[in-house]
Amino acid sequence: xxxxxxxxxxxxxxxxxxxxxxxxxxxxxxxxxxxxxxxxxxxxxxxxxxxxxxxxxxxxxxxxxxxxxxxxxxxxxxxxxxxxxxxxxxxxxxxxxxxxxxxxxxxxxxxxxxxxxxxxxxxxxxxxxxxxxxxxxxxxxxxxxxxxxxxxxxxxxxxxxxxxxxxxxxxxxxxxxxxxxxxxxxxxxxxxxxxxxxxxxxxxxxxxxxxxxxxxxxxxxxxxxxxxxxxxxxxxxxxxxxxxxxxxxxxxxxxxxxxxxxxxxxxxxxxxxxxxxxxxxxxxxxxxxxxxxxxxxxxxxxxxxxxxxxxxxxxxxxxxxxxxxxxxxxxxxxxxxxxxxxxxxxxxxxxxxxxxxxxxxxxxxxxxxxxxxxxxxxxxxxxxxxxxxxxxxxxxxxxxxxxxxxxxxxxxxxxxxxxxxxxxxxxxxxxxxxxxxxxxxxxxxxxxxxxxxxxxxxxxxxxxxxxxxxxxxxxxxxxxxxxxxxxxxxxxxxxxxxxxxxxxxxxxxxxxxxxxxxxxxxxxxxxxxxxxxxxxxxxxxxxxxxxxxxxxxxxxxxxxxxxxxxxxxxxxxxxxxxxxxxxxxxxxxxxxxxxxxxxxxxxxxxxxxxxxxxxxxxxxxxxxxxxxxxxxxxxxxxxxxxxxxxxxxxxxxxx
Length: 655
Hints:
alpha+beta
């Protein structure tokens, strides 16, 4: 970020903000304090003697289904232990457990034998082949750090992958897939090559010169190899023929899993910056800046349009309307002529108020979550914290949802307050989320259970989520609705006529559907580049850490949705169409439709997902994200337009 960028004061301001937010992500919390390691016999409360290697779920870019380590026929720890996992880790399908790999020198872990004709062995080997064919990746952890596989990529750069493949495949036509391209010896047709050996290198920072005991781990890398060992007692980590698994299981097969560990001292790497070598190797920083500048141009364009309307056109309109006589005003055309109808309650006001209550809940949850992420509280080192934070905030923010929904429903003139409270508490949560989302949720969970995936949420966790929902969120919604109904209705600046005014015939561009479709284009243009990185982190299992950029794009999205909706709202009012309530919500909410279209494009152009189960899961989760985004953006547009309409009609003289 030290490159000189000559884009004027505004760019320098954005640069400073993003630099600040990105620097915030380097903070570490008390729960992530450094751990020192000492030699055997020299440990204590402040220094551990055992370095544990944990294994996590296995995932693939060709499948949405993650699997636990134990599902594959790998070597297992005789005294298996599992660290406690938070709600976010469970929802994301992370299953961390101890491994049989002890941090020592070269060592044979175990031997896996497969007998021809034994149905159980055939099933285990077929599942292992499936994992290699779909390029499933190991994810190992040492001292809360991912054990990375670093290799050279184009332009002489090095990429450090937090996972490494279990093996690879040379197809029947001789094409080397995935990791098989790294070794010319992987050339036999219709053959799988198992990476049954890993060379682990642990880099540490010694505390001798800094006044603390032992050493702190600052990096853990490995290199996977395929080596055919003939004897478990006589193993080697160099040379030898690759460990081949024929495509056709015609003879007995034994796979010996081995590993070696080396240590390297490097006092130039500080513990607080030990993630840097992983994050720096990931590209996209320049693209992120392009995304910010692209969004900034759109915001400046919209801001200029809104400023022109507010300062010139609208100001002249107000001055003219306040100077002319009432008879002359009747001959005028424009937004003042609908003053007696502009605050006429909308149709389906109950549903709109419920949507706005839930959208407010999503907005506050997203803002707080991103703000905490920028401060480093939800860094990648704190696994599952982002999802846990979002779910907990969602549950606790039932009160604002109930309050906003009840207050707006009362403003719309609604009298069925009991129905509104129940719908606010249960309609979206129960019908939309339980029926629509939970239809997908339970259907998807059923698919995951059938497939044996680790992403299948345990029944106990499902019960806990429902308990949080109905035990905390629903009562808080009732509390918010109670205070919302106790408040007086929002006072409108003008009276509403008893007889509705006839709306004149509209041109094509001022009709509802064209305006709604156009309204979502600019907000989507602000986020589509950032959206690519978010989808990559979800579906391509890439680490996302640029929360400073994301928070800035979030603010830009708020401004863009607000300004685009206000702009179109003004044009429609000038055309004497006063049906703005639902239109303001749908105008910015239509951004979610473009999100869905982009997700479909991403699926077919960027992903390599195969299989019906993975496809159903992808589009099921995508529909959940689209619905949440629809409520979020729609709420932003509505309240921006609500403020604008109240403001302009409060400054004109109406007899």
